Amino acid sequence: MLIKFLLLISISWFTFCVHGKEPEINDKSVAFSNGITLQYTKKERFFADASVAQAKRLPVYITESPRIIYEWNIVALVTELHYFEGSVKKLSLYDYEGSLIVPVFEVVGDILYLSDKRKIILFGNSAHYDIDFSFVYSLDTMQIKRLEHGAAYRLEVSQDEELLWFYQYLIVEGSPVVNIKIFNSDGKSLKNINVRKKGSIDFNYNNKTYSIDVDTPKVPG
Predict the structure, then answer these.
(1) Distance (Å, rounded) from C-alpha 218 to C-alpha 196?
(2) Is residue 15 part of a domain?
(3) What is the Cα–Cα distance from 15 to 19, expressed in whole angstroms?
(4) Pair 36, 114 in one domain
(5) FRET label pair with 198: which of 71, 91, 105, 189, CA 20 to 30 Å apart?
(6) Based on the number of CB atoms within 10 Å of its own CB, is 23 exposed (0-12), middle (13-18) or buried (19 or more)?
(7) Structural domains in the chain (count)
(8) Which residues of the chain have pLDDT under 70?
(9) Predicted TM-score (pTM) of this structure
């Protein structure tokens, strides 16, 4: 079974302004100052036998986790559907009045928040399925950019949030290498590098030098 890397986005436009006080995260709910309550489930199991869920192509259990992104005045709720193999994450963003402010994102992989850049990285990766791209979404422009990076096993972000780089193991000319694809935080591809030994490399961007650690090359798989 191949689970596609999904990003569900409907076309919508909103004026992002903040009202109300900071919400309160409780044990099973998020309480907003205007009286609205958002219920969430820490964990709920649907099938005692995971093989039954696999046969039905349904999740075995679900987990939900809210957090406040104070820099954005936003509540982020991550709902994770855990399947027999792998999981799918759904990200919902709410303002301080409890309103859903962007369409729900769905991703097989990880979610990273670039606080200063007001951007969200939906990193496509899986130990079970072939996923070779990610997305970067801007809260300010509401634009989405697809990043092609191959079957990356890791993503790193520079401390100033200017750069992203993805790691992938490859075989090049008969020997293993670590392939590193570098993008800026707008999703523009900057460099594709193959490195044959563990250590670090320097990359210059906008008159600044970034040091990128390199893992020991391995045979992919």
Answers:
(1) 10
(2) no
(3) 12
(4) yes
(5) 189
(6) buried
(7) 2
(8) 1-20
(9) 0.85
Q: What backbone torsions phi and psi does residue 110 show, to the nearest 5 degrees?
A: -125, 160
Structure tokens at 102: 């962007």
Alpha-carbon span 56 to 62, nearest angstrom:
16
Q: Per residue in 198-211, pLDDT tens?
A: 999 999 999 999 99
Task: Find where tokens 């290498």 sit.
Answer: 177
Residue 10 is predicted with a pLDDT of 34
Question: Which bin fits 18, alpha (ψ -120 to 50), beta or left (φ > 0)?
Answer: beta
Residue 129 sits in the same domain as residue 69: yes
Domain that holds residue 110: 1-9+21-148
The pair of structure tokens assigned to 160 is 């100033």
At residue 142, what is the residue type? M
- Residue 125 token pair: 């990766």
One-letter amino acid of 170: L
